[in-house]
Specification:
Elements lengths: L23 H14 L8 E5 L2 H14 L5 E5 L13 E4 L10 H18 L4 E6 L14 E7 L2 E9 L10
Parallel strand pairs: 1-2, 3-4
Antiparallel strand pairs: 4-6, 5-6
């Protein structure tokens, strides 16, 4: 919706519309101005993937509800195995981080695989990895350029940004 400049809630009603002081003509003008900004013909390069079909089913239902199902490509795949859909872009991933999955050894093996896939396939991309376990992103083997504190419910998390480049960013001594 952001890529199409489509305002959230554009086609729904709001409780404040029932207030006595509600200015219907002003609201209508604002809504029409927002509708005129929508860039519905804009080509989108948005791809989504997940290892599990149930998550993809939910994502498809949400896209259907927004009228965007034909604008986003979804497939069942492992991020460490799939090729990038474009030469450059942004990848956002929320790999398991041990809150529900208790197998810490599996996670300790997964994060280096994510790092290897990023380095080998996604040079020129910016990767964002969301996790509650602040130790796991260190296993990726890339230096985070930014760490943004966020919450997943009551769970304190971080969104790590990695700028993926070909070769090394290390300075020669």
């Amino acid at each position: 919706m952001i890529a199409l400049d489509r305002a959230p809630g554009l086609d729904r009603g709001f409780g404040f519309e029932k207030l006595a002081a509600f200015d219907a003509p002003a609201w209508s003008a604002l809504r029409e101005r927002a509708r005129s900004r929508v860039r519905g013909d804009r080509a989108l390069q948005i791809h989504g993937a997940d290892r599990y079909g149930e998550s993809l089913k939910l994502a498809r239902a949400n896209l259907d509800a927004l009228g965007l199902a034909d604008r986003v490509t979804l497939k069942q795949a492992d991020v460490t195995e799939m090729p990038p859909p474009a030469p450059s872009g942004t990848i956002v991933t929320n790999p398991p981080y041990g809150v529900r999955l208790e197998d810490q050894q599996a996670l300790a093996a997964l994060y280096p695989r994510i790092g290897d896939a990023l380095k080998k396939k996604y040079a020129g991309w910016t990767a964002y990895i969301f996790t509650a376990d602040l130790r796991l992103p260190k296993l990726i083997g890339l230096a985070a350029s930014r760490r943004t504190p966020l919450f997943n419910g009551a769970l304190e998390c971080r969104l790590f940004e990695f700028r993926v480049v070909a070769g090394s960013m290390r300075r020669k001594k």
